[in-house]
Every structure is written in C-alpha cells, then in structure tokens.
Backbone:
C-alpha cells in the first residue's frame, strides 16, 4: 500500500468518503494523508456521480488537485475489506502528460515527431496489416533492451509470450470494430524477462499506410502492489490460508451453484481447537502460532481439489467441502480431520498433542445466507465441544433453538443482579465429632422471573464463557460477607466458603476486588475460604500461583474443591498456597459400595494429614458415610445428611438451635454409634 507507485485511496462505497490514502496521494493531490482521510471523494473527483461509485474496472477520470488544477488519472478499482467492512480501493495514476501527448500527436504531425522521440514512455507505430514495427522511440529501446534496428525487423507478436498471441489477434479484431480500450499485456524484453504493460493505442496514417500508434506503460510494480493488497484482504497473514472474507465469498458461490443445480451438495465444517489456550499459556504465543501454521498445513494437505480450508481467526478454522449431500459423508470428512490432527506436532523440539471440536452444517437450504450456514456450523461445534474433546456434531434446528434460548438466558443473567433475582443459599459445614456448625458454604441461586429457580449447573458455565461470572462472583462474595458478618454476631468464628472460578482467578484486579469487599463489609479475612477447582492450574498455573499468593497475604484460606476429579498432577500441592482439600462428593457417596473409591478417600485424608492440610468431605448423605469418614480421621463434612442449602433466615434459625446444643449432634452420634 505504502510502496505503491500510484496514489491509492480506500473509499466507503456507501458514503463515498475516503477511509485511507497512501503517501503517494500527497504528491499527486497536494493534500496530506490526514487531510484526505474523512474527505468526500467529490473534493478530488468533482464529476463523480454520487451513488454510482465504480467498484471495479479500469477507466480514466478528471481529478482536481488542492491548488485547483485539473489532472487526468487512470483509475483501477476493486473491492477490498478494510477494517472489517466492504470498501473500494482506487489506484490512481496521473496520466495527464500521456493524455497531452496523445492530444498533441493528433494536433500536429511535426509536433508528433518531436514528442514521439522525446516521450519518457515507450511508444511505437506498427503496420496494421503486417503487424511489423514501423517506428519506435528511444524510451522503447531503453525499456525493452532491443535496438531500433531489431525492433524494425520484428512484428508485435514477437515481443509477447507465445500463449498470448491468440489473444492478441482477438484484440486486433476488436480494434477494427472500434470496441477496444486500454488493456494489460505481458511483454518480453530482449533479455527474455516478462513485464506487465498497459497498452493504449490509436489509429493513424503513417507514411501512407494505415498504422497504429501504441503507448506502453510499465505497470509491473503497480500490479504487484495490487496483488499484495488483494492477498492481504483475502488471505490469513499467519497461515497463508484463505481468511473469513474469502471463505464467505466461496461459500456464497457454492450456494449459488447448489440453487442453480449446476453443482452438488456441500457442507461447512467449523473447527475449534481443544485446549489451544493451554499451549499458548504454557509454551508462549510464538509456539501457539507455530502450532496454528502446522495445523493449517495438515488441513490443506488433506483438502480435496475444489474444497476450501480457511482460518477464521484465533484457533478457529473452517472447511467448505463440495460434493457432500448427507450427514454420513460429512461425518467421514470430519473423521479424516480428527485422525490427521490426532497425530503429534513437533513444536520447539517438543511433542504437542491437540484435537478439535467440529460443527457441521449441510448446504442446500434455499433461503440460507452464507453467514447463516457458518453460524449453524458454529452452533453445532459448541454442541460437539460439550460432548468432550475430538468430537463432531451435525447441526439441526433444535440446536439453533437452544442457542437462542441460551442467548436469552445470558441476556437475562446480565440483568439479574440489577433486578434482584440472585439469591445466596448457605449449606452448613459440620464438625463430625460434635455435630456443631463450624461454617457455611455460600451457594448462588437464580430466581428467574419467568423460569423460576435456575440451578448453578445451568447458568454458571455460561457465565464463565461469556465473562458474566465477574459481576456475578463479586455480587455473591459481597452479599455472603455482609450476611455472614451478621451471623457471626450470634456465633463468633463461623467460617464462610465462597466458590471462585478460573476466569475470576485470571482477572488482574481480583485481589483488589476481594480486599475492597472485606473492608466494606468488615468481614474478617481469617474466616473466609475461597474454593476453586483443580482446572485453574491447567489453564494458567503461573498466573494462578501469583494470584493465590497475593490472596493468602490478605489472611484468607484457599480450598481445592472437588479434589481428585481434575488435574492429574499432585505437584501443585507443594507449589501452591493451599490450606484445605475438599473430597469430591462422587467419592464420598460411593465409598460404601466401591472399594476403590473408599481407598481414594482414605488416601486423600492421609495426604492431607501428612501435608498439614485440613480435609473436608462434601456430599455426605447417610449416617454410614459420616461414620466411615470419622473412622478414617475426617473431622469436617457437609451434605444433605445435615442440611440442604438454606436462605439466610433458615441459617439464622439453625444457629439459634446451637444455643442449647449442637444442631447436628444427634446425627453425628447416630453415625458414631452405627
């Protein structure tokens, strides 16, 4: 763009306002780049008919410079995507001198001779019947490398590659009919190098013969710059694959063929890499880029002729598969992609394994737009991702209905805080030896105005994915600290456990948020436990470690929730500032019938004891489970055996019972006596 020899403008096709201009524009028009950007095109092209901005082709126009002088420019126009919207690029070459040359040639034969020889542009005259050169100027001799004598012994066919000679004769026939205009040709120099030239020609009488005067303009660099501009607009800079704009164009062409029945069916595959963020975070963005390039090469390698593989952005790819009419055929293509990407990649001398979730949308729906098909494939991809890694799913209309419902739910959740629809419930945490309540876990519930109670399993994953978890998490912590501060007036020393998601841990201001809430509510940080799952360490261990160390400095404690179900490495137990482990309910509830799970519970309790880390059991539902946990050395537990999650009034009433005796002493004694 900046290296182009011509003045290049990027123009909004709707408003005819200049969006960008290169440095050459300043030399041609006399305006600075800053002055041109935002200027109506009419200011430099007064004769422009508004609403009829040419979007393609080559033509001449009269433009106006800053000083009011008029210049003749040769315009080459084409479509381009600029900053995410459809635009028109216009490459403008000042041909005022060339136009004056032609006018002068028509005006005077003698003057023609002088200008012909002195013109800086290559010019020649050839016989229309024999096609032999009759005259050439010095610029042609210098530019092409042939001597004047060599030129005069040749025909105009001989300066062209053989494959362009048939087109030349077609062109000559058009000239006879008077329908020809400027054209681009490939010409050979004396050293057999090829160059692109734009030819303008006119008929004249020369030495009593009907001849043709030709003016040749070398446009090799201009076309090269235009090609680079076009390539940048339609190809991904990192992988070299077609980008979203070109993919959508080809998808539209496939739809047109399908409607016209000139082509068969087709399918769109939407690919999203599984756990690509882990590679980026653990190995660095450069390694991530190398992996994207390697994946692009593999996808392009298995692509059939006629199919299109594109990178849409980030770690998302798309494949347009032609000649596919049904789900089984599209599924086989997806299986081939899965197999190809299941093989390891070597990045920086390390083996990297990856996989992809694939959504499939079949073409052929008459009223579908290209963006509808891509959206459907994207929707199916999310269904596949929900089934696990390396899965694919074919779109059906129920997925769209579900996506619309999820979007509505997301919008409702964004307003739920302001509408007062969120509630905090409290599940007691009980000392098994006494049955006394030692704390509560805060659990959020959503009282939707139309749907009733929406459980966390339905809206928390969506909140994490969309980023709404940030404001929801802040509200829950603030409300829980405020209410628990009041409960501590009745029972001093009660602890409060609040869940924190991996997305929140990666928020740069999380520590400041929590510190501000503790200060605003007066809640003692020594009574606060933040619960997070092991997956936090997979997503970004270094960032998580920094955040947890800073949180510990506030005085609160860190709990690993659902311990034993996530991250397979135990090394983080000594690297991370962890105070408590919470045994996942799935182990607790099955340890009476599954010996392996009983041993897992025993192992976790032993591990906690050896590391000096407190262990809590969750999901206790029977007295037998409580008895087994006590026998194994577990001191604290929670679950429906003791109480379901209560609102703050229920928790207050429960604590009132503790004034006389531990609220759950009967249940823990029953467990001890079994």
Residues:
């Amino acid at each position: 763009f900046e290296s182009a020899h011509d003045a290049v403008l990027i123009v909004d096709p709707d408003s005819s306002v200049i969006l960008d201009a290169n440095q050459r524009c300043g030399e041609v028009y006399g305006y600075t780049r800053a002055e041109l950007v935002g200027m109506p095109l009419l200011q430099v092209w007064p004769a422009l008919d508004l609403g009829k901005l040419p979007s393609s082709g080559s033509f001449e126009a009269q433009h106006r410079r800053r000083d009011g002088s008029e210049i003749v420019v040769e315009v080459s126009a084409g479509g381009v995507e600029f900053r995410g919207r459809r635009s028109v690029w216009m490459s403008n070459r000042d041909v005022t001198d060339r136009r004056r040359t032609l006018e002068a040639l028509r005006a005077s034969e003698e003057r023609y001779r002088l200008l012909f020889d002195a013109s800086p542009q290559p010019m020649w005259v050839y016989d229309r019947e024999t096609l032999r050169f009759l005259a050439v100027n010095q610029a042609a001799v210098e530019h092409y490398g042939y001597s004047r004598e060599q030129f005069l012994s040749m025909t105009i066919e001989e300066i062209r590659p053989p494959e362009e000679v048939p087109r030349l004769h077609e062109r000559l026939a058009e000239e006879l009919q008077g329908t020809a205009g400027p054209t681009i040709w490939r010409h050979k120099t004396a050293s057999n190098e090829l160059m692109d030239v734009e030819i303008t020609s006119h008929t004249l009488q020369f030495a009593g013969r009907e001849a043709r005067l030709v003016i040749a303009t070398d446009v090799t660099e201009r076309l090269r710059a235009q090609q680079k501009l076009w390539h940048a607009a339609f190809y991904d800079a990192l992988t070299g694959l077609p980008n979203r704009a070109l993919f959508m164009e080809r998808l539209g062409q496939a739809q047109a063929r399908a409607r016209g029945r000139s082509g068969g069916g087709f399918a769109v595959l939407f690919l999203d890499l599984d756990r690509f963020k882990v590679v980026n975070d653990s190995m660095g963005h450069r390694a991530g880029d190398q992996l994207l390039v390697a994946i692009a090469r593999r996808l392009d390698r298995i692509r059939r002729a006629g199919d299109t593989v594109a990178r849409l952005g980030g770690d998302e790819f798309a494949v347009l598969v032609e000649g596919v009419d049904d789900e089984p055929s599209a599924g086989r293509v997806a299986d081939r992609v899965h197999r190809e990407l299941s093989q390891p990649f070597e990045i920086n001398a390390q083996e990297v394994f990856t996989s992809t979730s694939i959504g499939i949308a079949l073409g052929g729906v008459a009223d579908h737009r290209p963006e509808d098909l891509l959206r459907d494939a994207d929707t199916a991809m999310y269904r596949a991702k929900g089934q696990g890694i390396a899965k694919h799913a074919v779109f059906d209309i129920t997925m769209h209905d579900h996506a619309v419902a999820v979007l509505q739910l997301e919008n409702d959740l964004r307003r739920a805080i302001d509408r007062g629809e969120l509630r905090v419930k409290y599940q007691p945490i009980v000392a098994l030896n006494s049955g006394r309540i030692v704390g509560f876990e805060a659990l959020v519930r959503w009282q939707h105005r139309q749907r009733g109670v929406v459980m966390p399993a339905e809206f928390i994953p969506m909140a994490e994915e969309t980023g709404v978890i940030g404001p929801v998490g802040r509200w829950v912590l603030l409300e829980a600290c405020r209410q628990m501060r009041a409960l501590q007036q009745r029972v001093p020393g009660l602890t409060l456990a609040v869940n924190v998601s991996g997305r929140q841990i990666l928020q740069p201001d999380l520590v400041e948020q929590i510190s501000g809430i503790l200060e605003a509510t007066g809640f003692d940080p020594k009574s606060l436990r933040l619960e997070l799952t092991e997956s936090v360490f997979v997503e970004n261990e270094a960032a998580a470690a920094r955040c947890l160390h800073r949180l510990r400095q506030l005085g609160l404690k860190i709990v690993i929730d659902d311990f034993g179900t996530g991250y397979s490495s135990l090394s983080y137990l000594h690297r991370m500032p962890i105070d408590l482990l919470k045994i996942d309910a799935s182990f607790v509830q099955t340890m009476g019938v599954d010996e392996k799970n009983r041993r897992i519970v025993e192992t976790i309790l032993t591990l906690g004891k050896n590391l000096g880390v407190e262990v809590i059991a969750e999901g206790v539902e029977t007295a037998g489970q409580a008895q087994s946990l006590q026998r194994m050395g577990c001191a604290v537990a929670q679950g429906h055996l003791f109480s379901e999650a209560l609102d703050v009034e229920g928790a207050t009433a429960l604590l009132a019972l503790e004034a006389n005796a531990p609220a759950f002493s009967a249940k823990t004694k029953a467990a001890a006596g079994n």
About this structure: The chain has a mean pLDDT of 88. The longest helix spans residues 397-419.
